[in-house]
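B., you asked whether I could sanity-check this one before it goes into the benchmark set. Here's the sequence:
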Amino acid sequence: MRRVRLAAIAIATLLALWVVWNWGTIKGQAKVGAAYGAHIACSCRYIEGRSMDSCVTDKEAGMEMVRLSDDPENKRVYASVPLLAEAVAERRGNFGCVQLNAKEIEAL
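And here's what the prediction gave me:
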């Protein structure tokens, strides 16, 4: 029983070290995934005119953690990776869908 406990502690420690070592990469990939999801879903929803349920199916493989929601009144799509990243894309006339920067997101 002691060996099992020590093995579990060793595995947990290695996992924690791996997460700490790769945190920047993990966070960066989450930001890219959220931004991509927001932009693609915004284009799908407010340029192509499809339903949000239909747009969710456009997510690429590996984007299962990206959550999407829309704000039809303001023509915005919100995307997030829980606890890691968030992004917002908004339809702006002839410019199409544009990403909002951090200050614009905070002002919402």
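One thing to flag: Strands lie at 67-71, 76-81, 85-91, 97-99. Otherwise nothing jumped out at me.
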